[in-house]
């Protein structure tokens, strides 16, 4: 066969395609590792001078390989990024295990070196997320440790999953075949609620796939050719037509939906008046933060004189005029097209199809803050954010900030640091965070200035820092009485995080080294560095617009909250866009 770009694709289309997908399930994964190279080779399996230690660590490595692959099915709860761990990762790790155990002194095992090679090089070489790397290292520590060499060492709270005693190859495969076909999420370091989250994700994917197969429907008067419209998962708001609209035409339903969303959206802010009332102040960065936030919201809300749609929006941080008024412009043009007064472009058709399905149009999201909400909750959330900004503009900065209500949260956090640095005349790069948690919940039941159970009594802002609310915990809950993290309640997927004081501190004032590395090193063993994400999807640009960490008190040492050895739940903190 010659090398050419003009290949005949018919043989490829008519040929038989074969794929080699990894096994599904913990039992199938373990069995696949023992029946594949190099473990299936007798020369390898029985080739170690210290068979007892080698075979226990080898079984732990096989379990670890299945562990990291099976966590993928839990979506973002398992790994922030869906990594493709492969058989070569396992094979090279197994060969390194044999080599290093054979070469080790009789009274020692190179467990630290093995953890580094396997966790940082072989498997860790694929891991790009900082917190995924931390979880991977914690998981590997359960299998490559001294305790794993003891008889009866369990890999989870279940007595079924343990390190078996030394034996022939057949004894290991027989043990694996006796395991249940489906393993509980506790085996993978997750809370039992993770099964509910996974099932909901699978059902949502199925419903989205079914929705995508439906046609766009007919004209305004026909109902027989109109697909069943989607409904919102919110009790209120314009989340798409309800079942009562089945007898109406698609265009008629969409026209009512466009009118309802347009009516509910707030009017744009007067930026010049805001800048006059809150001028640039060297010692008050919140003035600049407010004005910048209002400009960003106006890009979604402010009507323009141009009739062309904003088809080249590039995100919330862009400054081009095409990002302005994307919602109002698209709604006005779509309404005109539905009335027959304008042409229905391909872009407007996509906007209408998304709204009819109860989804936020991609055109809006290109100029919006990150959100995973459907259309109805998204519009309600946008109105609450605008209300918070309007109250701030009309009165004063709130004593408790709704952290998730900001368009660009990083600007707010930087502004708090900047105020502290300028007030105390210290370099901003020496400023770090301390986190002081309140006794109650940080929920207020919506937008506004309230702080919920713990924030309602807050009437004055702190001298340094800021009170924030609106955070949620997944995989754990906050015990306000004990002031620490506790296990999640069964079937409660999200719980409110406490009201929190973000308190800046500086080494220039305290004389202590509070750089990030030093702060991590001196962290209290009962403080868990909890990742903080903008949305449950946990995707996006890291550092400035991605996530941060919050130190939360826990009863057990902090590492037990990473990959719990015995039925300890996994914890994530999320901002309020859940």
TrEMBL record:
Domain of life: Eukaryota
GO process annotations (BP): microtubule-based movement
GO cellular component terms, semicolon-separated: dynein complex
Polar residues bias spans: 1-11
PANTHER family: DYNEIN HEAVY CHAIN 2, AXONEMAL, DYNEIN HEAVY CHAIN 6, AXONEMAL-LIKE-RELATED
One example GO MF annotation: dynein light intermediate chain binding
Organism lineage string: Eukaryota, Viridiplantae, Chlorophyta, core chlorophytes, Chlorophyceae
Protein name: Dynein heavy chain 7, axonemal
Residues in Dynein heavy chain AAA lid domain copies: 54-194
Pfam families, sorted: AAA_lid_11 (PF18198), Dynein_C (PF18199)
Compositionally biased region (Low complexity): 223-247
Chain intervals for the UniProt region annotation (Disordered): 1-21, 212-247
Cross-referenced InterPro entries: AAA_lid_11, AAA_lid_11_sf, DHC, Dynein_C, Dynein_C_barrel
Residue ranges annotated for the Dynein heavy chain C-terminal domain, each copy included: 201-308, 325-548
